[in-house]
């Protein structure tokens, strides 16, 4: 049975799309069509932005506590659909179901409650001045947000934006990625059931041209984008021209640095989580593994054995650790990088091809390259697949130099028996986030990148602040 929608979620209800074209959703595992949604048009974006603008005044005038009540109901409705959400995401992008339950089913309600509560606790601030009087500092919602998300972790990434934006009193027009739309429509069902006021959230699915139209739309006050660096540059250019606030969460090529005292075998599960999770399709994964020359062959063996031992298969199975890539195009791209890795002189020590026992599905074996040099293409460009490059280093100074020899700066991890040493090393890594003996985005801490990995931060109080406008009212001016 396929899941097919005929209407769009605009103004709090199902609305007839203005066009008649649809977006088919294809399973990366079976290569069969599993559903479809209407493809939004520019007219639909206009309608969605109008709805969001019309809703803004009212939603922004509610107290944060009133909004928190509705957002709590939204969280409850999402929670009751969590298993279905996880299954839809896995079926669309190949994410192993155990991970989808955690990231896609579990995380959105947590984020909604976290930000609803944070906003409800915020108060205007009175700051004693230096010049005699004092200043009243107020926060107000930044306005209508255009949110554009990718397919790799669609629900969690959507709620990195939605939760703080809605809690702050903004209204949103969301454009999901064409590969993952069925989860967005389930979210719309949850929003309707929760009684989210009409126009507070609107969803228009479509491709990059529709995204570009939304970014430049005169009714949008802020753009929040997660996706590739190339698209981020184009969006940044438009927002620069318009002087429109923008948050850009872009690509990565992070370093997993194994220090000479690390016991990797004791931390293998965390290492898999920090380097190969979600079939290698996460922006912050540490896909450049830096290993000390003194232990190089032992570490290459450990990582290669890990890759060879992963259960590759149907993402909907509880035992699967590695599903297919999202599309045949993505698989071709990853295979192109594997070819390039070989021709540049890298040595494949695990994987390197398609799993022998699969007849369909866009699978690539978990792949490890040894003898990779930092200048090699596979050590510099984002592959977005299960391909690790193990690069040797001589001492800590060289390790830092190699870790920072990247156009990106998003994630990373340090592996060591001495967490203090790890934290000290992490200070020198040019990146927005780094984990010690693991990697996980805690909701309380700012997440985002430097260099080509983006602008701005999500999560933590900083995530809420990015949807708020500050105003200083100088009191008792003398
Ligand atoms: P993508 O940039 O091709 O597409 C992302 C979204 O943007 C899609 O919805 C797409 O339709 C839209 N889009 C594309 N070009 C656009 C444009 N010019 N204007 C407006 N919208 C546009 O990326 P993808 O292939 O879907 O996702 C993978 C990329 O996302 C990787 O580079 C990955 O590192 C990055 N990513 C970053 C983060 C992060 O938090 N930094 C998280 C997840 C993914």
UniProtKB/TrEMBL annotation:
Q: Which residues form the Aldehyde dehydrogenase domain?
A: 14-473
Annotated active site: 249
Q: Does the keyword Oxidoreductase apply?
A: yes
Q: Which domain of life is it from?
A: Bacteria
The signal sequence is none
| InterPro entries in the record | Ald_DH/histidinol_DH, Ald_DH_C, Ald_DH_CS_GLU, Ald_DH_N, Aldehyde_DH_dom
CDD domains reported in the protein's UniProt record: ALDH_AldA-Rv0768
Q: Name one GO molecular function term.
A: oxidoreductase activity, acting on the aldehyde or oxo group of donors, NAD or NADP as acceptor
**Which keywords does the record carry?**
Oxidoreductase
Q: Which family does it belong to?
A: Belongs to the aldehyde dehydrogenase family.
Name the UniProt record assigns to this protein: Putative aldehyde dehydrogenase
Q: Which organism is it from?
A: Rhodococcus wratislaviensis NBRC 100605
């Amino acid at each position: 049975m396929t899941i097919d929608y005929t209407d769009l979620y605009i103004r709090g209800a199902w609305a007839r799309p203005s066009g008649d074209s649809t977006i088919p959703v294809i399973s990366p595992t079976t290569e069969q069509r599993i559903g479809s949604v209407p493809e939004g048009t520019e007219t639909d974006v206009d309608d969605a932005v109008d709805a969001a603008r019309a809703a803004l005044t009212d939603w922004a005038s509610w107290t944060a506590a009133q909004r928190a009540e509705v957002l709590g109901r939204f969280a409850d409705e999402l929670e009751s659909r969590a298993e279905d959400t996880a299954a839809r995401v896995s079926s669309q992008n190949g994410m192993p179901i155990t991970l989808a339950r955690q990231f896609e089913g579990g995380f959105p309600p947590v984020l909604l409650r976290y930000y609803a509560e944070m906003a409800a606790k915020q108060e205007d601030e009175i700051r004693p001045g230096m010049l005699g009087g004092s200043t009243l500092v107020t926060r107000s919602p930044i306005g209508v947000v255009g949110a554009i998300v990718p397919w790799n972790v669609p629900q969690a990434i959507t709620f990195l934006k939605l939760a703080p934006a809605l809690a702050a009193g903004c209204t949103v027009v969301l454009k999901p990625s064409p590969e993952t739309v069925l989860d967005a429509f389930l979210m719309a069902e949850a929003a309707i059931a929760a009684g989210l006021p009409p126009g507070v959230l609107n969803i228009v699915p479509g491709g990059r041209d529709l995204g570009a139209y939304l970014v430049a739309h005169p009714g949008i006050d802020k753009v929040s984008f997660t996706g590739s660096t190339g698209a981020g540059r184009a969006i940044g250019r438009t927002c620069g021209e318009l002087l429109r606030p923008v948050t850009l969460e872009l690509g990565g090529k992070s370093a997993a640095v194994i220090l000479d005292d690390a016991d990797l075998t004791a931390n293998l599960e965390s290492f898999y989580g920090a380097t190969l999770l979600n079939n290698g399709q996460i922006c912050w994964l540490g896909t450049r593994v830096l290993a000390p020359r003194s232990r190089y062959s032992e570490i290459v063996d450990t990582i290669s054995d890990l890759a060879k031992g992963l259960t590759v298969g149907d993402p909907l199975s509880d035992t699967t650790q590695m599903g297919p890539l999202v599309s045949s195009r993505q698989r071709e791209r990853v295979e192109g990088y594997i070819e390039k890795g070989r021709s540049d002189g890298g040595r494949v020590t695990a994987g390197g091809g398609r799993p022998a026992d699969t007849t369909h599905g866009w699978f690539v074996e978990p792949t490890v390259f040894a003898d990779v040099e930092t200048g090699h293409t596979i050590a510099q460009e984002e592959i977005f697949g299960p391909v690790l490059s193990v690069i040797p280093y001589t001492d800590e100074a060289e390790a830092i130099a190699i870790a920072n020899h990247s156009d990106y700066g998003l994630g990373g991890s340090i592996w060591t028996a001495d967490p203090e040493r790890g934290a000290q090393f992490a200070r020198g890594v040019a990146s927005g986030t780094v984990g010690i003996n693991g990697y996980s985005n805690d909701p309380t801490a700012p997440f985002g990148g430097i260099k080509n990995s983006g602008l701005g931060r999500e999560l933590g109080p900083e995530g809420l602040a990015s949807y708020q406008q500050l105003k200083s009212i100088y009191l008792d001016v003398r």
